[in-house]
Fold these 3 entries.
Entry 1:
Amino acid sequence: MNTARVAEWQTCLPAGRREGLKIMHYVYVLSSLKRKYIYVGLTNDVERRVAQHQKGRERTTAPYRPFQLLLVEKYSTRPDARKREKYLKSGTGKEWIKQKYRAE
């Protein structure tokens, strides 16, 4: 099998199954500038993802635009990033976010 073709094929795999590729995963937190709303997400491209939210391309966040990016955390594995995302989406995690950014 041609190695160039294998590399091309691997990039088409879902994010959690891209073995051999060094893709970083990011957990991010957005805060609505108009309403009392915090959104926590996971992506491999923060700039692209935040732009999607700002443009209203996401049904869950469109009514809350515009946003301020509060936090970005970098992880080398998707499972680690997912674990942190789940925590930040929990009641305890949301309280942590509110306390951390209320003081700043």
Entry 2:
Amino acid sequence: MRKLVILLALCGAATPALAKPVYHFTDLGDDYAYTVARDNHGQLIISGTEAGDNSEFKLVVAGHSVRGNFGSRYVTFPVSDAQIARLNDEFAAAEKGETVAAN
């Protein structure tokens, strides 16, 4: 289930914020919020929280895989070209202080 939730997060809807956009989505009644950044190695970093139990997550997208922590659990799974493209669009928009419309 967490794979599905995280994959949905990669295509979430954005809401404007002062610093960088915070993206939101709801899955099975649980609300999630996350930001997208890039580290010194050029990898995308997805950081956020699940509102229900306030679980934090930090995921690194490298190549065609995602790895990181969701709450206290380590996760790893593949990611598609379309999802990588969406994250790159979100990061580029965040750099300009813009948001990306949900599909």
Entry 3:
Amino acid sequence: MDDELVQVFSASHMDAEFVRSILEANEIPAMLSGEGHSSAYPVNVGGLGGGRVLVRKEDEAKAREIIEGVERGDYALAEDEDVEGEPVED
């Protein structure tokens, strides 16, 4: 098994954490690597915050495919859905 890590995403700490969680939900182990002061201050304020998502080299292609889906909105909830995917009652 190849344990070399590669960066597949870089953005604000919050966006990077979201992408990491989507990858892990799709059974791709991922880790978040902070840049600058993002570990102490997870809010992106100018150049102070940011995060990089790292995966194993062997998972890179699948991770990038999933990230493209995230960017297309494939993982967004419809306005009338709750987190369980059921319609929200008014």
